[in-house]
Amino acid sequence: MADQDSENYDYDLFTIGAGSGGVRASRVAAAHGAKVAVAEEHRVGGTCVIRGCVPKKMLVYGAHFAEDLKDARNFGWSTDDIEFDWITLRDNVLNDVDRLNGLYEETLENHNVEIFHERAELVGPHEIRLASGKTVTARYILIATGARPHVPEFEGSEHAITSNEAFHLDEIPKKIIIAGGGYIANEFAGIFNEFGSKVCLVNRGDQLLRSYDEALRDRLLQISIIKGIEFKFNTVFKYIKPCDDGGFHVKLSDNDEEIVDLVMFATGRVPNVEGLGLGNAGVELGEKGEIKVDEFSKTNVDHIYAVGDVTDRVQLTPVAIREGQAFADSVFGDVEPYAVDHSCIPSAVFSHPPIAAVGLTEGQARNSLGNIKVYQSDFRPMKNVLAGRNERSLFKMVCDAANDRIVGIHMIAPEAAEMMQAAAVAVKAGLTKADFDATTAIHPTMAEELVLLR
User: Which distant-in-sequence residues (6+ apart) come within 8 Å of 28 by Cβ?
Assistant: First the structure.
């Protein structure tokens, strides 16, 4: 084991993984004066930027034009000669991913962070071996390798794609089965449906989006069915077999074999810990393979930390960024060490229409607080009225009856995530229903329903 004095190490910090958390931690640590290196075997930017939330949101934007162009007719626009070209959208999205990848690398380089474009593994408590064979030492080590899509093993499961491959398809499938019930499954179900695919969402459980409020889940299911998405619950795959002339024979537990163009799995994510040599440094893992850390992102080894999805705390990009920032400030900054507050984290599902939420669901609030008050607004947005679209939005506010404090806000509506970001500040700050009531509405908007709830 190397000496604890920092001058005897090649680096003050060596980060393995250059996703959102690893990049933020490396950049901030370097800004604090640390000598930093980061190893990334794929592309700088991680899941979110390269094959996750950023390109996914771009596809969501592209998909929504299908509805917007139909609705535009009732607003006086002629849209008869409109065509959609998937390759144009795909390539434009991938080009923007390239741009972002370059910006992330530039950010690290501007902060004098050395980048190794290769795999790295621990060979000792302070030693890291790169794929090239080079061995370096670091006073502190940060693991920020993220997670990857999980595909269950069954006959032919290797023929299914995941969200990783969805951004690179050569054509939109005419018929696709998507496995899963979480946000990724529902988002891609909406995307492919808007692009004209016949979509069947298969879930081994009996409900969608388990962490979200029941009323929102039910509303999304109703709207999705009306849009033409088929749902199969309590259903598992028996096999996937390639057809001789393309496509796949798929057998599910509840029906006869059918032929589809594509099968996609969105059934959770597993931490990327294999081949990192964590055992060589004595780092402990949890039951699901996640790296176990304390509130300061420190593992059981004093100088080894981990942030982001590899820890399996909250798998959201902004959370990984906050964890990376807190780690860098606490270890290398001239501040009192601080931990990230993982409570009251807002989130969104970019389905069609999107869902957004912060705080406790109605069920959670009843279980933890007992006496609560619930306020709702179930309305048809003005744009939908003129467009002739019968889609209704739902806002729900959950309050602690003892003190009127808002403990949860939930909504399914166009641009729900944009509205929720501001509302989440109020919930995090502990504001009350009376504070919302005392705020003048902006009319006419959907957001005004938040201050008019009864």
Answer: 324, 325, 328, 329, 332, 333
Confidence of residue 1 (pLDDT cuts 50, 70, 90): very low
- In this predicted structure, what is the pLDDT of residue 6? 54
Q: How far is CA 407 from CA 31, 132, 180, 349, 365, in A?
A: 37, 52, 29, 20, 8
pLDDT at residue 256 in the model? 85
Please indicate whether residue 64 is annotated as part of the active site. Answer: no
CATH number of 157-267: 3.50.50.60
Rounded to an integer, what is the distance from CA 413 to the centroid of its chain? 19
Give me the phi and psi of 35, to 5 degrees please: -90, 115
CA distance 280 to 56: 37
The structure tokens listed for 90 are 């795909």
C-alpha neighbours within 13 Å on the C-beta side of residue 446: 23
Residue 96 burial by Cβ neighbours in a 10 Å radius (0-12, 13-18, 19+): middle
pLDDT digits over 93-134, tens only?
A: 999 999 999 999 999 999 999 999 999 999 999 999 999 999
Q: Tokens 């190397």 identify what position?
A: 2
Concatenated DSSP letters for 405-434? BEEEEEEESTTHHHHHHHHHHHHHTT-BHH
User: pLDDT tens digits, residue range 317-356?
Assistant: 999 999 999 999 999 999 999 999 999 999 999 999 999 9
Q: Indicate the CATH number of 353-451 among 2.60.40.10, 3.30.390.30, 3.60.150.10, 1.10.260.40.
A: 3.30.390.30
> How far is residue 165 from each of residues 46, 132, 161, 269, 416, measured CA to CA in Å?
15, 28, 6, 15, 28
Helices (H), 32-110: 46-51, 53-71, 86-110
pLDDT band at 7 (very low <50, low <70, confident <90, very high): low
Whether 412 contacts 393, CB under 8 Å: yes
Reading the block at residue 60, the tokens are 């969501």
pLDDT bracket for residue 2 (50, 70, 90)? very low
Where exactly are the structural domains of the chain? 6-148+270-332, 157-267, 353-451
pTM score over 0.85? yes
Q: Which CATH architecture has domain 6-148+270-332?
A: 3-Layer(bba) Sandwich (3.50)
C-beta neighbour count of 105 within 10 angstroms? 19
Q: Are 325 and 317 in contact (CB under 8 A)?
A: no
